[in-house]
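#onboarding

Welcome to the new folks! Below is a worked example of what a typical request in this channel looks like: someone posts a single protein sequence, and someone else replies with the predicted structure as tokens. Don't worry about understanding the tokens yet, we'll cover that in week two.

Example request:
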Amino acid sequence: MKIMVITKNILAETAFQNRLQHLDHQVFCTTCLIGEIKESHLFYRKFDAIILSETIPRKEQYLYLKELARFKTPLFLRSEDIPTSEELNISYQYGILNWLRLDATLDTLRENILLAELNKPIQREDEKLDVEGIKLTAAERALLAVLYSTPKEHLPMERLCKLIYDTEETANNRKKMTKQLTKLNKKIQVGGFKKQGIQNTRYKGYKLHPQLLPYIGELFT
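Example response:
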């Protein structure tokens, strides 16, 4: 597994990193800031588990958790002390899989990593999308917002023209919308989503591919 350890002091993680590597895992220690997670979210999705070090103050850990929870990656907190019931409740609300004591044995670490493997989200290569890497025009963003707001409903061309251009469907608007949809689909594919992001069903209309919805949702959160 590829494991990330977020810490305030990389040198302080040497022994812990060695123990994880002893269990045959790739370990990457970083002192990344919360803002960096927002800017480089695709990088953090590459890891199978993320561990927050005890070197990070508890209140700051919660700020990290709030941002990391979006990735659905198994999360762990390291702690010198046994967490209180209040701390457990708060951390579990943010998606923490478990707490790791500093004196945890190799068997305990092995069990928790197995737990992370069982809880790791399944994501095929053709489902990935670098949302922040896609440059959208205001019109394209508006179109995605409309499609995202009706995930289970096909929108016919007539309704799309009405919602986006605030006019009735005309030959000119129809041509303009078709061109915009085609261009947007290409951008989505270039961004890494290899399927048809905006699906067109004959006689029904357009809707977003279900597997695309979580990524588009990131644009509006």
